[in-house]
Design a protein that fits this description.
Blueprint (H helix, E strand, L loop, with lengths): L7 E3 L3 E3 L2 E8 H4 L4 H14 L5 E9 L1 H12 L7 E5 L14 E10 H11 L3 H16 L7 H20 L2
Parallel strand pairs: 3-4, 4-6
Antiparallel strand pairs: 1-3, 2-3, 5-6
Protein backbone atom coordinates (compact mmCIF):
# COMPACT_ATOMS: atom_id res chain seq x y z
CA UNK A 1 0.00 0.00 0.00
CA UNK A 2 2.97 2.31 0.48
CA UNK A 3 3.12 5.00 -2.11
CA UNK A 4 6.70 6.15 -2.43
CA UNK A 5 7.07 9.67 -3.65
CA UNK A 6 9.72 12.32 -3.86
CA UNK A 7 8.46 13.50 -0.47
CA UNK A 8 9.14 10.23 1.32
CA UNK A 9 12.36 9.61 3.15
CA UNK A 10 13.02 5.89 2.90
CA UNK A 11 14.48 4.75 6.18
CA UNK A 12 16.61 1.65 6.10
CA UNK A 13 14.76 -1.42 7.29
CA UNK A 14 16.31 -2.25 10.64
CA UNK A 15 16.10 -5.31 12.77
CA UNK A 16 15.47 -4.27 16.32
CA UNK A 17 15.27 -7.17 18.66
CA UNK A 18 13.96 -9.88 16.35
CA UNK A 19 11.45 -7.82 14.41
CA UNK A 20 11.95 -5.98 11.13
CA UNK A 21 10.41 -2.52 11.10
CA UNK A 22 10.49 -0.23 8.08
CA UNK A 23 9.68 3.40 8.87
CA UNK A 24 9.07 5.97 6.15
CA UNK A 25 8.51 9.61 7.03
CA UNK A 26 7.45 12.21 4.46
CA UNK A 27 10.27 14.72 3.97
CA UNK A 28 8.04 17.58 5.05
CA UNK A 29 7.76 16.03 8.54
CA UNK A 30 11.18 14.45 9.06
CA UNK A 31 12.58 17.47 10.95
CA UNK A 32 9.65 17.33 13.39
CA UNK A 33 10.06 13.75 14.54
CA UNK A 34 12.45 11.06 15.57
CA UNK A 35 11.84 7.52 14.42
CA UNK A 36 13.23 5.93 17.62
CA UNK A 37 10.08 6.54 19.76
CA UNK A 38 7.89 5.23 16.93
CA UNK A 39 10.02 2.09 16.69
CA UNK A 40 9.83 1.71 20.48
CA UNK A 41 6.02 1.83 20.42
CA UNK A 42 5.93 -0.85 17.70
CA UNK A 43 8.37 -3.06 19.61
CA UNK A 44 6.38 -2.66 22.83
CA UNK A 45 3.10 -3.44 21.07
CA UNK A 46 4.56 -6.63 19.64
CA UNK A 47 6.15 -7.51 23.00
CA UNK A 48 2.85 -7.28 24.90
CA UNK A 49 1.38 -9.83 22.51
CA UNK A 50 4.10 -12.34 23.49
CA UNK A 51 4.59 -13.39 19.88
CA UNK A 52 6.78 -16.39 19.20
CA UNK A 53 8.00 -15.57 15.68
CA UNK A 54 9.78 -12.59 14.20
CA UNK A 55 7.50 -9.97 12.66
CA UNK A 56 7.93 -7.52 9.82
CA UNK A 57 5.84 -4.42 9.26
CA UNK A 58 6.00 -0.96 7.75
CA UNK A 59 5.02 2.37 9.22
CA UNK A 60 4.41 5.37 6.98
CA UNK A 61 4.03 8.87 8.40
CA UNK A 62 2.49 11.03 5.71
CA UNK A 63 0.14 13.90 4.94
CA UNK A 64 -3.64 14.28 4.87
CA UNK A 65 -3.88 14.06 1.07
CA UNK A 66 -2.17 10.66 0.96
CA UNK A 67 -4.26 9.26 3.81
CA UNK A 68 -7.43 10.69 2.29
CA UNK A 69 -6.60 8.99 -1.04
CA UNK A 70 -5.92 5.64 0.66
CA UNK A 71 -9.06 5.96 2.79
CA UNK A 72 -11.19 6.53 -0.31
CA UNK A 73 -9.40 3.89 -2.42
CA UNK A 74 -9.38 1.04 0.12
CA UNK A 75 -12.19 1.81 2.55
CA UNK A 76 -14.60 3.74 0.34
CA UNK A 77 -14.62 6.56 2.91
CA UNK A 78 -14.27 10.23 2.05
CA UNK A 79 -12.02 12.56 4.01
CA UNK A 80 -8.86 11.96 5.92
CA UNK A 81 -8.51 9.78 8.99
CA UNK A 82 -5.78 9.46 11.58
CA UNK A 83 -4.50 5.94 10.98
CA UNK A 84 -5.02 3.16 8.46
CA UNK A 85 -3.81 -0.42 8.77
CA UNK A 86 -3.36 -2.74 5.81
CA UNK A 87 -2.94 -6.30 7.09
CA UNK A 88 -1.33 -8.85 4.80
CA UNK A 89 -3.32 -11.68 6.37
CA UNK A 90 -6.33 -12.06 8.56
CA UNK A 91 -5.46 -12.94 12.15
CA UNK A 92 -8.00 -15.78 12.21
CA UNK A 93 -6.42 -17.63 9.29
CA UNK A 94 -3.95 -20.44 9.77
CA UNK A 95 -0.77 -18.68 8.82
CA UNK A 96 2.17 -20.53 7.29
CA UNK A 97 5.42 -18.68 7.87
CA UNK A 98 7.60 -17.95 4.85
CA UNK A 99 10.96 -19.74 4.60
CA UNK A 100 12.75 -16.93 6.44
CA UNK A 101 10.47 -17.52 9.46
CA UNK A 102 9.38 -13.89 9.54
CA UNK A 103 5.66 -13.15 9.67
CA UNK A 104 4.86 -10.21 7.41
CA UNK A 105 2.08 -8.26 9.11
CA UNK A 106 1.41 -5.34 6.77
CA UNK A 107 1.56 -1.57 6.84
CA UNK A 108 0.36 1.19 9.15
CA UNK A 109 -0.19 4.64 7.64
CA UNK A 110 -0.53 7.69 9.91
CA UNK A 111 -1.54 11.22 8.95
CA UNK A 112 0.90 13.48 10.78
CA UNK A 113 -1.25 16.63 10.39
CA UNK A 114 -4.27 14.76 11.78
CA UNK A 115 -2.16 13.54 14.71
CA UNK A 116 -1.14 17.15 15.43
CA UNK A 117 -4.78 18.30 15.34
CA UNK A 118 -5.95 15.46 17.59
CA UNK A 119 -3.12 16.07 20.08
CA UNK A 120 -4.15 19.71 20.32
CA UNK A 121 -7.82 18.72 20.80
CA UNK A 122 -6.95 16.15 23.47
CA UNK A 123 -4.53 18.45 25.28
CA UNK A 124 -1.45 16.25 25.03
CA UNK A 125 1.73 16.15 22.97
CA UNK A 126 1.96 15.15 19.33
CA UNK A 127 4.37 12.42 20.46
CA UNK A 128 1.70 10.94 22.73
CA UNK A 129 -0.85 11.04 19.93
CA UNK A 130 1.56 9.40 17.49
CA UNK A 131 2.29 6.67 20.04
CA UNK A 132 -1.43 5.96 20.41
CA UNK A 133 -2.03 5.93 16.64
CA UNK A 134 0.96 3.70 15.92
CA UNK A 135 -0.06 1.27 18.67
CA UNK A 136 -3.65 1.30 17.39
CA UNK A 137 -2.53 0.56 13.83
CA UNK A 138 -0.22 -2.28 14.87
CA UNK A 139 -3.00 -3.83 16.95
CA UNK A 140 -5.20 -3.79 13.85
CA UNK A 141 -2.46 -5.67 11.97
CA UNK A 142 -2.50 -8.22 14.79
CA UNK A 143 -6.25 -8.76 14.43
CA UNK A 144 -7.69 -6.35 16.98
CA UNK A 145 -10.76 -4.36 16.01
CA UNK A 146 -13.36 -2.05 17.53
CA UNK A 147 -16.45 -3.17 15.62
CA UNK A 148 -18.43 -3.91 18.80
CA UNK A 149 -18.28 -2.78 22.42
CA UNK A 150 -16.46 -5.88 23.67
CA UNK A 151 -13.84 -5.77 20.91
CA UNK A 152 -13.34 -2.04 21.44
CA UNK A 153 -12.87 -2.54 25.19
CA UNK A 154 -10.30 -5.27 24.51
CA UNK A 155 -8.43 -3.07 22.03
CA UNK A 156 -8.50 0.03 24.28
CA UNK A 157 -7.27 -2.06 27.20
CA UNK A 158 -4.32 -3.33 25.17
CA UNK A 159 -3.53 0.21 23.99
CA UNK A 160 -3.49 1.42 27.60
CA UNK A 161 -1.21 -1.47 28.59
CA UNK A 162 1.24 -0.75 25.75
CA UNK A 163 1.30 3.00 26.33
CA UNK A 164 1.85 2.54 30.07
CA UNK A 165 4.81 0.27 29.29
CA UNK A 166 6.19 2.79 26.77
CA UNK A 167 5.99 5.66 29.27
CA UNK A 168 7.32 3.51 32.11
CA UNK A 169 10.18 2.22 29.96
CA UNK A 170 11.57 5.64 29.00
Amino acid sequence: MSQSSEYTVPVEKKQVSRHFIDIQIDRQFEAEMDEAPLRHVIEQTLATEELTSAMELSLVITDDATVEHLNREYRGETGTTDVLAFALSEADETFVLPPDGVRHLGEVVVSYPQAVRQAREQGHSTGQELALLVCHGVLHLLGYDHDCAAAEARMRGREAQVLAAVVGGR
